[in-house]
Specification:
It is built from 13 helices and 16 strands. It is α/β, with parallel strands linked by helices and about 475 residues long. Strands 1, 2, 3, 4, 7, 8, 10, 11, 13, 14, 15 and 16 form a 12-stranded mixed sheet that branches. The protein has a two-stranded antiparallel sheet with strand order 5-6. It starts with a helix and ends in a 5-residue tail after the last helix.
Length: about 475
């Protein structure tokens, strides 16, 4: 009887040991990355944190310690847009410590150090959120259904558990931030984190503020501002702008199909911008259509791909393809400690998510946050037609804040890098920055300028 009970307990222990990696958070130090020559000159960790009541959703993250003073420098929890775009997007193509070498040849792309990495001055947490993004996964099929509301809940749960796993960083100042669509749920998350801190929730979080890049804020306002932006940038004529403004009564989103003049004017506008690269209006329209071999298709440039003679190059699309090629390498997955059998093909942006868009506008959240003592940096790219700066400036103006520092130029290497203005209300400060010559993901187009902006802002120095 005792012998039978002993075997039974050994069986239970064995099952628990096998399931442990999938039930609890984990953290692994990564000293080398495939494609990078030698040891990493920065401290990198990867891990999973389970969120939700049963922790069936396992969120993958990368944590890069600041290369300056990790125990004193701020922590930035950074979200990538989409929804459904992986943290590796930011890690390689935006503000992370390494970049993909475009000249790479062969099975495994080469990695290079990023001279404008934010991790030179910040501790940065990169997270695959929502579930199904990147290497994050669910242990149940039901867990793959997500939404803006679940995004917020999972992010807050992740943040609290991360500080439990990393108690050595509990006194560091925390900021949260993200770009494009991730800005929409980030703002309610900011409210939850702030209120949790105010209520004395545990673990203690030394929360200071937030950063948003080309943020989706109000689905109507952001989309509606595109027509005005197109006119400001001379993409449509004065005559068409005046006509469409009058015929559509300034509403270019909810067009009445029975308003024939509005429909005709909007169709004329659409025809004029259809071949414009909305991410950066001065760059060629270019995209990558993946096939079974994840290769570039050399097709006619009128389709936005590549000319047959290869004179039309798609460098940004090629970067994306290299990231996916790198992340799907088995040696890479071993190095990152990706749990076997949890994810199939890695996609930089997963467009097949089961995701519900609960939020239409977070302007009221912004308005409520002006009653706090938080610091807020929001920056826009002046060549971005996806989220035009005109819409961003409109909702900022609606907050009725006082101007602390009026509109002025800011400089990098003696040249105008953009323009900035600071607003305040009591102890709340909002710094708006326009990045000159940048596209939708500003730090992808102007990495040096954006890095210096970030370094100055986090150091409380004038931008």
């Amino acid at each position: 009887m005792i012998h039978a009970m002993g075997w039974r307990w050994w069986g239970v222990i064995l099952v628990l040991l096998l399931l442990a990696p999938f039930m609890a958070s984990s953290r692994s130090i990564i000293k080398n990355l495939p494609g990078f020559s030698g040891d990493l000159p920065f401290k990198l960790e990867s891990g999973y944190i389970g969120v939700g009541e049963e922790e069936e959703v396992q969120l993958f993250y990368l944590f890069v310690e600041s290369q300056r003073n990790p125990l004193k420098d701020p922590i930035l929890l950074w979200f990538v847009g989409g929804p459904g775009c992986s943290a590796l997007s930011a890690f390689f193509l935006e503000n992370g410590p390494v970049t993909i070498d475009r000249n790479s040849r062969g099975i495994l792309p080469k990695l290079l150090l990023n001279p404008y990495a934010w991790t030179q001055v910040l501790n940065v947490i990169y997270i695959d959120l929502p579930v199904g993004t990147g290497f994050s996964y669910s242990q149940t099929q039901q867990g793959y259904h997500s939404s803006d509301i679940l995004w917020i809940e999972n992010a807050y749960d992740f943040l609290q558990k991360w500080f439990i796993d990393y108690p050595e960083f509990v006194s560091n100042i925390l900021y949260v931030g993200g770009g494009s669509y991730s800005a929409m749920p980030t703002v309610p998350l900011v409210k939850n984190v702030y209120e949790g801190c105010k209520a004395g929730s545990k673990p203690f979080i030394n929360f200071k503020g937030f950063v948003l890049a080309s943020p989706v804020t109000d689905t109507f306002l952001d989309s509606n501002s595109k027509v005005e932006y197109a006119h400001c940038l001379s993409l449509i004529s004065d005559e068409l702008y005046e006509s469409i403004k009058a015929s559509c009564n300034g509403n270019y989103v909810n067009i009445n199909p029975y308003n024939k003049k509005c429909v005709i004017d909007y169709e004329a506008y659409s025809q004029l911008i259809q071949y414009i690269n909305e991410l950066q209006i001065l760059e060629p329209l270019c995209d990558i259509i993946p096939n079974d071999n994840r290769r570039i298709l050399f097709e006619d440039s009128s389709d936005g791909i590549v000319q047959n003679d290869s004179t039309f190059w798609c460098p940004r699309g090629y970067d994306v393809m290299l990231v996916e090629q790198w992340a799907n390498n088995q040696d890479v997955r071993k190095a990152l400690q990706i749990r076997e059998g949890t994810k199939g093909e890695f996609l930089r942006c997963n467009r097949s998510l089961s995701y519900k868009y609960d939020l239409k506008s977070v302007v009221d959240y912004h308005r409520n946050l002006t009653e706090t003592n938080l610091q807020f940096l929001v920056y826009s790219a002046d060549l971005d037609l996806v989220i035009p700066y005109i819409g961003t400036q409109a909702w900022i103006k609606s907050l009725n804040l006082k101007i602390k520092d009026p509109w002025r130029a800011w400089f990098v290497d003696g040249q105008v890098a953009g323009y900035t203005q600071i607003y305040k209300k009591h102890n709340y400060f909002l710094t708006y920055v326009a990045v000159k010559g940048a596209g939708h993901v500003a730090h992808e187009y102007k990495p040096k300028e954006v890095f210096q902006m970030i370094e100055r802002w986090f150091s409380y120095a004038p931008i």
